[in-house]
Amino acid sequence: MPNVVVVGTQWGDEGKGRIVDLIAERVEVVARYQGGGNAGHTIIVGGKTVILHHIHSGILREGKLSVIGNGVVVDPGVLLEEIETLEGMGFPVTERNFALSDSAHVVMPYHKEIDRGRERKSGKSKIGTTGRGIGPVYEDKAARRGIKVSQLLNPETFQRRLMEVIEDRNLYLEHVLQMEPVSADKIFQEYSRYAERLTPYIKNTTVLINEALSAGKRVLFEGAQGTLLDIDHGTYPYVTSSNASAGGASVGTGVSPDKTGIVMGVTKAYVTRVGEGPFPTEENGEQGEKLRTHGGEFGATTGRARRCGWLDAVALRYAVMVNGIAGLAVTKLDVLSGFDSIMICTAYKYRGEILKEFPLDSDVLRGCEPVYEELPGWKEDISKVKTVDDLPHNARAYLDAVEALSGVPTWIVSLGPSREDVVFKHDPLA
Ligand code: IMP
Question: I want to staple 327 with a disulfide (CB 3.0 to 4.6 A). Which of 34, 65, 155, 411 is the partner?
């Protein structure tokens, strides 16, 4: 059985969390490779709803190792809250089931201040970030003024490093954003306490994962956000600041590309986006509202109403190419029940010309109009269906169209919110 990378094919929120939860049963290690507190998985345990930002749902399964890889950016205060919440619910987080990379970069209070201050200042040209400091922390990583988890562990190193970088960040806060500077002393005290509590989990996760692989253990690499939010392959500048696509799995965990395994793409049966940026198939009227209410499309991290629209097969084909997707998990098909007809975008029209390829220039994408294929809808409630063959004819025809247009098979279909509401057409890890 191979290892597997699970990636989102859209602008995030495709329902990766529940697919990861499902596949986690079949692997020994689940490793997250990028993103940070901007992600949010909603998990329901014993009737209680919890939103996790750093730790993935693999932690709920006994005997699995959950790893936060070097490519992730960690907000230690938020991570500790998650650990406390999980423990309060009876799920111990221990050195045996959780590891945090010593090379992951740390989100500092000034990153969050800068993120929010910039967004406020940008007005119309804002990105619509989650305000979790993600852009500024990755920016500091690239500018070589970041602070890594390992540097929190030694008080002298931490203090020296903090003093080296904070002056510049405070100048930026005060003089560019006209905001209050932050106190190095306060941060030092606060983050030293966090470091002490996180110490048991902090490991060289590159070695840890590679040793697990050498011992024949299977690893699931989990991407946060989605391909179209990838800093290189997404709708720049309306993207997140890391590589959400499958290539990020190797860099963000220190596992060579030949070992990360097959790639499964998760696509919602329609599309959503939060934040700003072009979205050709967006439905601003009644249909969009219906998708939003049927699908409960409100952000797990920010609570923002998600923008909703029809499935975009041009973008999906692009995601298949960029990630090397071998098969799809199609989520939330049940949300489409009750529509008279369902649209799939098969091409774009741009300045009178037909485009079959996803344009990488956001200004071009903004000018694209979708060319739709209209498919008949279905009225039946499909949430309790147990096999694809038992789906109404039109729902099967919709899945067939997704396969034909994306060029890859559908492996998994999800039809409702609980673990049981998932139908396998093909089990990639069998
Ligand atoms: P940032 O990652 O907070 O910097 O936000 C950059 C863009 O990515 C914004 O449009 C966010 O709404 C979007 N974004 C970040 N994380 C997620 C996510 O987990 N799901 C959906 N959109 C996200």
Answer: 411
Name the residue range of residue 76's domain: 4-102+202-264
Query: The domain spanning residue 221 has which CATH number?
Result: 3.40.440.10
Beta-ladder partners of 423: 413
278 belongs to a structural domain: yes
Rounded CA separation 308/263 (Å): 26
Q: Give the ligand 1 atom nearest the CA of 40.
A: 19
Cβ 255 vs Cβ 151: under 8 Å? no
Residue 86 lies in a domain: yes
Give the model confidence (pLDDT) of 349-366 as tens digits.
999 999 999 999 999 999
In 228-322, where do the E strands start and end?
A: 262-268, 271-273, 307-309, 311-312
Q: Where are the alpha helices (DSSP H) in 334-375?
A: 362-366
Residue nearest atom 1 in ligand 1 by C-alpha distance: 129
Give yes or no: residues 295 and 371 share one domain: yes
- Nearest protein CA to atom 10 of ligand 1, as residue: 275
Integer angstrom CA distances of residue 224 from 45, 73, 257, 346: 21, 12, 18, 26
Residues with CB under 6 A from ligand 1: 11-13, 38-39, 127-130, 132, 134-135, 224-225, 229, 238, 240-241, 274-275
Among 324, 331, 348, which residue's Cα sits nearest to residue 408? 324
For 68-94, the pLDDT digits (tens) are 999 999 999 999 999 999 999 888 999
